[in-house]
Amino acid sequence: MINIILPVDFGEKTDRLVEAAVQFAKQVNGKLNLIHVAPTDIGFAIGDMGYQYFPEVEENEIRQELILLNKINQNILAQDIDCEHLLKQGNAVDVILDYAQTKNADFIVMGSHGRSGIYDVFVGSLTKGLTKKSTIPVLVIPIHD
Question: Which CATH number belongs to the domain containing residue 23 in this structure?
């Protein structure tokens, strides 16, 4: 069976990416391994008192993201595609590549929003970072309008 890593960010185009990944998995008899990488600074805020950490904010956010990840997982399983999922905090590129290695992945499936240029300079591109560092094929699916 072909192991496919599918990072998701719960953005407005996630449904399109998931559907494309499901179709790919059906074509290659693949298993989807969902991963969501949460930032490590979720519970931090800056105010008059400087940096403050609110663990309850982080816990609530992680709990909500896990609920969303479970829903996507159930949707994929309902389409007769083997699927499992993981939510982890850290640097997205490193976490995804580590997960791909752990799962002995054959592909990483990513979405392309069609942004380029100055956007990448200031925000960076997860897809770009993965394609530069990955030793396994990264399938980039256009999900922009």
Answer: 3.40.50.620
Residues 83, 54: contact at Cβ < 8 Å?
no
Q: Which residue in the block uniquely carries the two structure tokens 């159930």?
A: 74
Q: Which residue has the tokens 């990072």?
A: 7
76-122 pLDDT tens trace: 999 999 999 999 989 999 999 999 999 999 999 998 765 554 444 43
- Domain assignment present for residue 53? The answer is no
Can you read off the two tokens belonging to residue 130? Answer: 């993965």
Token pair, residue 62, equals: 């992680």
Tens digit of each residue's pLDDT (9 = 90 or more) over 49-76? 666 666 677 788 889 999 999 999 999 9
81 contacts: CB under 8 Å, gap ≥ 6: 22, 25, 26, 30, 31, 32
**Site of tokens 């083997």:** 82
Q: What is the pLDDT of residue 143?
A: 78
Cα dist from 57 to 9, 65, 76, whole Å: 18, 12, 29
Pairing of strands 30-38, 83-89: parallel
* Domains: count for the chain: 1
- Identify the helix (H) or strand (E) that includes residue 76: helix 55-77
